[in-house]
Amino acid sequence: MVRECAYWLFTLRITPDDFANDLTVFDWMSQWKQPGDDEQTIRGILGRLLFSQDDIKKPAKVLSGGEKGRMLFGKLMMEKPNILIMDEPTNHLDMESIESLNMALEMYEGTLVFVSHDREFVSSLATRVIELKADRVVDFTGNYEDYLRSQGIV
């Protein structure tokens, strides 16, 4: 049974209220902890999102747009949904943020469904490829490179 599903539309619209208070990065993320989460859980998520020990002491409101995006993804991780549905999650991210997102998703234990034109991102995470063609749907179990080979593309 699906407990929760989180949808991540990565044309992020960070509103001024999202980071308006004076909370540190650590305290901001702590707002989303679940029963059983401890300080180490929060530090682990922040670490996977590439926030250093010094970073987590900064006020969250001074973070860059990319850092705020990573924080919002961390919030999703704290909420522990069973399914993440992501639409072009690497769009508008710098390389550091893409690496951070990749690392976090590799550790994610739920089901991940995503649409992406970022071949490197797809290659690093996909274990099944569903391609929608004009006349049919191709459903392939395996990684992206194997899929390309099966289609005679590589």
UniProtKB/TrEMBL annotation:
Signal peptide: none annotated. Residues 41-91 form the ABC transporter domain. Keywords: ATP-binding, Nucleotide-binding. The keyword Nucleotide-binding applies. This is Uncharacterized ABC transporter ATP-binding protein HI_0658. Pfam families: ABC_tran. One of its GO terms (molecular function) is ATP binding.
